[in-house]
Task: inverse folding
């Protein structure tokens, strides 16, 4: 693992966990008396925050990984490689935010299979976003002159 992969793994983990936890805490403060009812909504909303943040970080990582390369195929491979690490960070952020939600709402029934599916979707979106960003960033110098 090189420095760029480690950096974006950590950035993805911290950013996705923070956004998901903030969204979940906001939703849980809406109804203090019925927190168990809002646990599912908080989980889903936190995951949407996780997903959108992971996609944004994946685009940034794909662009950074492919900077300086002129072959779109190489950019695509580099974007996919960095997207994997961003996706793993997003899964870690989702797990941490889910554990925090379980601590906030002790009676909630959060299913591990649901978290696995949400995590795999976040991983897939991260891979796709970083792959496209890497491919679009790496282009021949003459492509700029034609445009």
Result:
């Amino acid at each position: 693992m090189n420095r760029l992969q480690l950096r974006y793994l950590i950035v993805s983990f911290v950013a996705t966990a923070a956004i998901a936890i903030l969204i979940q805490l906001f939703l849980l403060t809406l109804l203090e008396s019925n927190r168990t009812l809002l646990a599912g909504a908080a989980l889903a909303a936190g995951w949407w925050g996780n997903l959108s943040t992971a996609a944004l970080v994946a685009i940034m990582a794909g662009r950074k990984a492919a900077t300086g390369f002129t072959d779109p195929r190489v950019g695509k491979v580099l974007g996919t490689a960095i997207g994997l690490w961003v996706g793993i960070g997003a899964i870690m952020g989702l797990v941490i935010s889910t554990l925090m939600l379980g601590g906030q709402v002790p009676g909630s029934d959060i299913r591990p299979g649901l978290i696995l599916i949400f995590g795999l979707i976040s991983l897939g979106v991260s891979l796709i976003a970083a792959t496209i960003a890497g491919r679009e960033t790496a282009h021949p110098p003459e492509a700029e002159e034609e445009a």
Remarks:
- Residues 6 and 85 are 8 Å apart (CA to CA).
- DSSP finds five helices and no strands in the chain.
